[in-house]
């Protein structure tokens, strides 16, 4: 059994604690316990869950009268020397906030947010949730209200996706085909026509011409935002590899979780 004092050392030396493991082993309960312990000892803590299930609220003993959402909610703790706040990731809201932050104009942000392709991918595309979780982590890490962020990840496979999300976004933005699609002139469009038209026609037959048009319109509207997203992804990746970022793997005695 782990010496409880080792967790005190972990809490005292960390700015970020990422809690991971397979499903049903107690990650959320462990995340809540670490966050409460740190707040009791004087840290200003934000605990965020990536899992959309409302287990974190239950683990913190929050009643139905208090809701946890995408913004930090203060959780009262009797006798605490520090402060505790809790959040539950809202992928779409986090993505919208990034679009607003990096769009050169409000009009460009509105074009993106009203695009049907964007509305579909902002909450449902594979990998979007994991990258937005990494973005939320960085947002909380940079927030002067908190000096410790505890992250409750979803089950193991998605947790690994969360950790690799910043690198995958950078690879996507730097991909040659993506650079062609968002090229800022008619040269880029000619390249798409010459190089990709057979592929685009095939995709159009499968997903429909309207869906393809929406996707291309989204990527054109995204022009100018990619540098901000790439730089941000690099910063997120840096935080995940800092010495003050610690990882707690939760398991149980059963062979499958181990």
Explained architecture:
The chain is α/β, with parallel strands linked by helices. Helices cover 57% and strands 12% of the residues. It contains 12 helices and 6 strands. The longest helix is centred in the C-terminal third of the chain and has 22 residues, at 186-207. The radius of gyration is 21 Å and the shape is globular. The model is unreliable at 185-192 (pLDDT under 50).
Question: What characteristic shape results from the CA principal axes?
Answer: globular
Structure class? alpha/beta
CA radius of gyration is: 21 Å
Number of E-state strands: 6
CA(first)-CA(last) distance? 16 Å
Q: What's the story with the biggest beta sheet?
A: 6 strands, mixed
How would you summarize what this structure contains?
Helix content is 57%, strand content 12%. It is α/β, with parallel strands linked by helices.
Secondary structure blueprint with pairings:
Elements: H1 4-13, E1 16-21, H2 27-40, E2 44-49, H3 55-59, E3 73-74, E4 83-88, H4 91-102, H5 106-113, H6 116-124, H7 128-142, E5 148-152, H8 156-173, H9 176-181, H10 186-207, H11 209-221, H12 226-240, E6 245-250
Parallel strand pairs: 1-5, 1-6, 2-4, 2-5
Antiparallel strand pairs: 3-4
Helix pairs in contact: 4-5, 4-7, 7-8, 7-12, 8-12, 10-11
């Amino acid at each position: 059994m782990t010496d409880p004092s080792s967790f005190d050392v972990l809490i005292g030396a960390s700015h970020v604690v990422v809690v991971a493991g397979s499903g049903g082993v107690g990650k959320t309960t462990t995340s809540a316990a670490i966050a409460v312990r740190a707040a009791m000892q004087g840290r200003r803590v934000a605990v965020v869950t990536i899992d959309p299930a409302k287990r974190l609220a239950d683990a913190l003993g929050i009643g139905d009268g208090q809701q946890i959402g995408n913004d930090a909610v203060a959780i009262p703790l009797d006798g605490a020397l520090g402060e505790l706040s809790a959040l539950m990731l809202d992928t779409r809201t986090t993505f919208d906030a990034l679009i607003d932050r990096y769009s050169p104009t409000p009009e460009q942000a509105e074009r993106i947010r009203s695009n049907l392709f964007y509305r579909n991918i902002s909450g449902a595309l594979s990998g979007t949730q994991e990258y937005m979780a990494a973005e939320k982590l960085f947002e909380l890490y940079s927030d002067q209200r908190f000096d410790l962020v505890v992250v409750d990840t979803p089950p193991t496979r998605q947790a690994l996706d969360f950790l690799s999300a910043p690198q995958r976004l950078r690879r996507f933005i730097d991909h040659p085909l993506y650079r062609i699609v968002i090229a800022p002139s008619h040269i880029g469009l000619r390249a798409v026509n010459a190089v990709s038209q057979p592929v685009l026609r095939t995709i159009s037959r499968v997903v429909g011409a309207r869906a393809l048009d929406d996707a291309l319109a989204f990527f054109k509207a995204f022009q100018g935002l990619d540098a901000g997203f790439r730089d941000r992804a690099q910063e997120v990746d840096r935080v995940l590899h800092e010495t003050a970022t610690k990882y707690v793997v939760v398991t149980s005695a059963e062979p499958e979780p181990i």
